[in-house]
UniProtKB/TrEMBL annotation:
SUPFAM superfamilies tied to this protein: beta-lactamase/transpeptidase-like
Organism expressing this protein natively: Chryseolinea lacunae
Domain Beta-lactamase-related: 64-382
Protein name per its UniProtKB record: Beta-lactamase family protein
Pfam family, one: Beta-lactamase
Length: 417
């Protein structure tokens, strides 16, 4: 009888993930099947399933209250996409709905991709975190020759260049070329010595693209496609203005007019600083990337490299105050392309973005093995509060979720001697 019971339980363990997935995932509209993660899926945790149902209801309330035209949400638990859905419309004045392949601009979350790509090149010994920018770009200069010699890739990716806050971001929005803006940096007096403090940048951050081009002999865009988008099967991701203009399944950005959201044009703004704000992606793409961020794609990026990205480099205030309202915030920093938030008993890695009416948020909890992403075609409470909402709902259920996972681990040991 015990043998029959074990066989029955084993069959359930195999069937549950596929049965529950039909409930929590939206069926993709695209004819091509959604690419599966290159890892064995885990049995689906029923406590997580209930959590996701509650989360979906709360998200609907947020979307309604904020009048967000359209959005897409993904939740990954370790190696499994447990929630993937589009809600609302691509454009407030049209019938087309957001699906899991609808493309959004992800704005400053592009910075996370820049550090991700840099990390891959570091683990392949093409680059090194502490090598100097001038060793790759001899003509680059800050106003101070001494500080120019100190500037490393680590400083660039942690916004510790010493430049004043958002240097030349106004020129980015006016469409100036990256080469011109980088050359003009030598005209700007430094606010602090290099490496001394955090000061958010778009132009200076995009130095990393030029460094990558110098080191590899390929364009930044080609390196991103070959080393990140391709290996992770991010099928609709791109990093240029032409691609998003040509894609038929795109969410339109919106602006507030007369108390309501109205569609706006997709602009070329910030594609001139692609490492800082040029990535376009669907929520399906982002889900594949989050599987890698949780350490499940070592053939692309190693857990040790991810740990480098997530390690604090410089003290920095949390940009989205809603993360501080989740639980009492202990401290916050900026790592390599990521914000690092410490709570008394937890750590959250996150980044947000806003450009041209698009909002994006992504967060990773390495300890609990969850990652969440929200893409929206208008700013507001859905994008601002959607991820803190998930982790607030997760907090009281963590012990139960982990206990179930441990029970399954022990059961697998019995079934597979």
């Amino acid at each position: 009888m015990k043998l029959k019971r074990y066989i029955f339980i084993g069959v359930l363990l195999i069937a549950i993930p596929f049965l529950v997935a039909q409930v929590v995932r939206e069926k993709p509209d695209a004819p091509a099947p959604f690419p599966k993660a290159m890892v064995k899926p885990r049995p689906f945790n029923p406590i997580v399933a209930r959590l996701l149902k509650t989360y979906e209801k709360e998200l609907a309330l947020l979307a309604e209250a904020s009048h967000t035209p359209g959005a897409a949400i993904a939740v990954v638990q370790d190696s499994t996409i447990v929630y993937l859905k589009g809600i609302g419309k691509r454009s407030a004045d049209g019938p087309a709905v957001v699906d899991v392949h609808t493309v959004f601009r992800i704005a400053s979350v592009s910075k996370c991709f820049a550090s991700f790509l840099t990390g891959i090149l570091v683990q392949d010994s093409v680059l090194h975190w502490d090598e100097r920018v001038v060793d790759r770009l001899p003509r680059f200069a800050l106003q101070s020759a001494e500080e120019t010699q100190k500037l490393t890739l680590r400083h660039v990716l942690s916004h510790a260049t010493g430049l004043p806050y958002h240097t030349y971001t106004n020129m980015v929005e006016e469409g100036a070329s990256l080469d011109s803006m980088l050359a003009w940096l030598k005209k700007i007096p430094l606010a602090t010595p290099v490496g001394m403090s955090y000061s958010y940048q778009n132009v200076a951050y995009s130095l990393i693209g030029k460094v990558i081009e110098s080191a590899t002999g390929k364009t930044y865009e080609d390196e991103m496609r070959e080393r990140v988008f391709g290996p992770l099967q991010m099928r609709t991701a791109s990093i240029d203005y032409a691609s998003i203009r040509q894609n038929p399944n795109v969410a339109q950005p919106h602006k507030m007019r007369g108390g309501k959201w109205v569609p706006a044009s997709i602009t070329s703004t910030y594609y001139n600083v692609a490492p800082a704000g040029g990535v376009n992606a669907s929520i399906s793409d982002m889900a594949q990337w989050m599987i890698a961020l949780l350490g499940n794609r070592p053939n692309v990026i190693s857990p040790a490299t991810l740990q480098q990205l997530f390690t604090p480099e410089v003290k920095a205030r949390s940009k989205n105050r809603n993360y501080g309202r989740m639980h009492r915030l202990s401290d916050s920093f900026y790592g390599l392309g990521w914000r690092v938030i410490y709570y008394p008993d937890d750590t959250l890695i996150y980044h947000g973005g806003f450009v041209n009416g698009y909002r994006s948020e992504v967060a990773v909890n390495p300890k609990e093995r969850f990652a969440v992403c929200i893409l929206a075609n208008a700013p507001g409470d859905l994008a601002d509060n959607g991820i803190p909402l998930f982790f607030n709902l997760l907090q009281p259920k963590r012990d139960s979720i982990n206990a179930w996972e441990e029970q399954q681990r022990k059961l697998r040991q019995v079934l597979v001697p």
